[in-house]
Write a structure and sequence with these properties.
By secondary structure, this protein is mainly alpha-helical. The protein is built from 22 helices and no strands.
């Protein structure tokens, strides 16, 4: 095989970087409406408060399955007219927009649960290739700026989508509805979200040209050109051995959980733990199935994805641990900010009290603040990275976020928490950009999509663990005082910051 001198990937203009990032405005608009209003829709349709976590679990599980699949498929796709990633952008935006239009108009809880799954699946079809898109289109020197631009549009989309029902209410649209119905303010917000989602993604699709597979190959170094990335390096025995361990471990944990709950019906462990134990067993089963295919020399997508998981680059393994602790900390804040601050500032746990609901409203404002800060700090990150390097930049930002979370227990004045949000906003902006900037530098161009999908595991898994374990810590370790659960998240973010010291930039 003859090796050629790599071509230099062209620098893109600011306008081109903006054009390829606008689609994330719509994607985050969809996610923002989902995160802020789905629990409200569930409760409007009769869901009990204890049932909401298990209804929500479909969303992260969907991402866990969908993102590597979509990444794998987009790596294998090429159309001279539509490109490599853009067919998935457009397809996902159409499906997600339809789901947004239908979701608030359902009349039964089971329909809402199905619509959440469809909405999340559709958003994932659009979102996953966007991360790989930056790796495809930008040289390494511009990737921090590219992901920072995505962070900017994510922040804008999150702020506007979060406050949209309040804006519509202020304009005179009804914010209440009969039992079993969703308020007009929420329904119209989803209608607007559908339009914004499709329009912003379509803008990116029609204003950005992708490089062909031949062009992408020409940008690789001679060493990268010599590597056969389609090769399966995992042996059949390794598939079977690892699969057996995971399957047995998940089965034993499921049995122990069932046995404990059967013996302690008055104080059972959270039923969401079954999602974790069954997931461990299912992961083992998937590896056994992949091993069976490979034993017959049948090379398919499942075999390739599991093999790629085993063959993760070293930088990706290091970043995966950083992501795990960072996102665990974020979920602690998202889950417990309202009850934690109600206890710490308003000194109440009564969810029907005016004080509790005032804190709840203020938490919504605080979340808008940190997303707004994230959008502003997105312009600072490329300059920080050029001076300090990407690992140190991410370390500094995560330290700011960890201290911001820890400060929740220190401030007795709710308005001082805006200071906390500045630190969290800096961390959030970096979490959305810096790990991906470092990761794309370590990935082969032919595997950019599938590895971005696999990297999503380390966002979803901590989300599932947070939903299952943080309740135990809050109840049994912190005596029900949930502000300390947020403090725990702050210390975990500091751990994530220190783990950046292990990362060596390529």
């Amino acid at each position: 095989m003859s090796l050629t001198t790599p071509a230099k990937k062209p620098l893109l203009t600011l306008r081109q970087i903006i054009n390829m990032s606008v689609g994330f405005l719509g994607i985050q608009f969809g996610f923002g409406l989902q995160n802020a209003n789905v629990s409200r829709i569930f409760q409007s349709l009769g869901a009990k408060i204890d049932d909401i976590p298990i209804l929500w679990i479909a969303a992260p599980l969907t991402g866990l399955i969908m993102q590597p699949v979509i990444g794998y498929l987009s790596d294998k796709t090429w159309s001279p007219r539509w490109g490599r990633r853009r067919p998935f952008f457009l397809t996902g935006s159409i499906l997600a927009s339809l789901a947004l239009l239908v979701f608030p108009n359902v009349w039964a809880l089971w329909m809402a649960a199905i619509m959440l799954w469809l909405l999340d699946a559709s958003i994932n079809i659009s979102m996953e290739p966007f991360r790989a898109f930056v790796g495809d289109m930008l040289p390494d020197s511009q990737r921090t700026a590219g992901f920072a631009m995505q962070s900017f549009f994510i922040g804008i989309g999150a702020v506007v989508s979060s406050v949209l029902p309040y804006i519509l209410t202020a304009l005179g649209i009804s914010n209440t509805a009969a039992v079993g119905s969703v308020p007009d303010s929420v329904r119209y917000s989803f209608d607007i979200g559908a339009i914004v989602f499709f329009a912003s993604v379509a803008y990116t699709v029609f204003t950005t040209r992708e490089y062909s597979p031949e062009e992408l190959k020409s940008f690789d170094t001679p060493a990268a050109q010599a590597v056969d990335h389609s090769q399966i390096n995992t042996t059949v025995q390794a598939f079977y051995k690892k699969g057996f361990y995971w399957l047995v471990s998940g089965s034993i944990l499921s049995f122990l959980l069932y046995n404990y709950n059967h013996r302690h019906p008055g104080t059972p462990l959270e039923k969401e733990l079954y999602v974790l134990t069954f997931g461990i067993a299912a992961f083992g089963l998937i590896q056994l199935v992949a091993g069976t295919f490979w034993s017959r020399q049948q090379k398919n997508g499942l075999v390739e994805v599991v093999n790629d998981l085993y063959e993760m680059p070293q930088t990706m393994k290091q970043l995966a641990v950083v992501q795990f602790f960072s996102w665990f900390a974020l979920f602690a804040m998202w889950i417990y900010s309202t009850p934690g601050l109600a206890q710490n500032i308003a000194h109440t746990t009564d969810t029907s009290s005016p004080q509790y609901n005032e804190i709840g409203n203020w938490v919504g404002v605080l979340f808008a603040f940190y997303n707004g800060f994230a959008a502003l700090f997105a312009f600072l990150l490329p300059k920080m990275a050029s001076r300090m390097g990407r690992p140190v930049t991410h370390l500094v930002c995560l330290v700011a976020g960890g201290l911001g979370l820890i400060s929740f227990v220190l401030f007795s004045n709710q308005y001082l928490l805006v200071i906390s949000m500045a630190g969290i906003g800096l961390a959030w902006s970096s979490i959305l950009s810096m790990p991906y900037s470092m990761l794309t530098a370590a990935l082969p161009s032919k595997k950019m999509g599938v590895y971005m999908g696999i990297f999503n595991f380390f966002i979803v898994i901590p989300q599932i663990l947070a939903a299952t374990l943080l309740g135990f810590f809050t109840k049994h370790v912190f005596g029900g005082d949930s502000v300390y659960t947020i403090v725990l998240g702050g210390f975990l973010m500091l751990v994530a910051a220190l783990l950046n010291l292990r990362i060596k930039e390529k």
